[in-house]
Design brief:
Layout: E1 35-38, H1 45-56, E2 60-62, H2 63-71, H3 75-82, H4 84-101, E3 105-107, H5 116-125, E4 127-132, H6 135-143, H7 147-151, H8 161-179, E5 182-185, H9 191-204
Amino acid sequence: MLLAAPSALLPAAPLCMRRGSGYAHRMFNPDTRPIALIGLMGAGKSAVARVLGERLGVSVADLDGMIEAVEGCSIAELFERAGEAWFRRREGELLADALRSGVRVVACGGGVVLDPERRRLLRESCRVVWLEVSPQEAAHRVSHGSPAAARKRPLLAGAPPAERLGQLLAERAPLYAEAAHVRVQTAGRTPAEVATAVLAALERA
């Protein structure tokens, strides 16, 4: 059963017409802190979060999906209309709201770690897993074999996807490392295999 979006998630004046889209499944596990997946775009955070939610029988939130559902348009449109600074603030608000709502697995946007307060919130409130991926593999995943698909990602404009992802990883790797409790490699693994590795890593942590 889908959770209704908490009232705190609904802005007074959405930037775009709202589209109907659920983002969390109603379940609750009170025994552990939520699992938060962080990492570069293309790491597979959304897909792995879905698998974890199914296996554990818990609620799942995808921050990118949440913000698109609440604002009613794509991430690319939001970047164009409101800018990255606004997007990062909104992303942080929705992260806090999702955690307050009882969500147990969160797929974070790739840039959520840019803000020190978000890193602190994740580190203190969640079991944070950095899904590691090479820029080359990430570029392949986000492009789906089509360079045009990658260019729809606002942060990949102006350079070949692998090159731009390499720049983003160089900038963000220390921040991912600061926020994460464990790291899991995704290369050569399916989302189901990554989910298994995530649970094993958390068990060992």
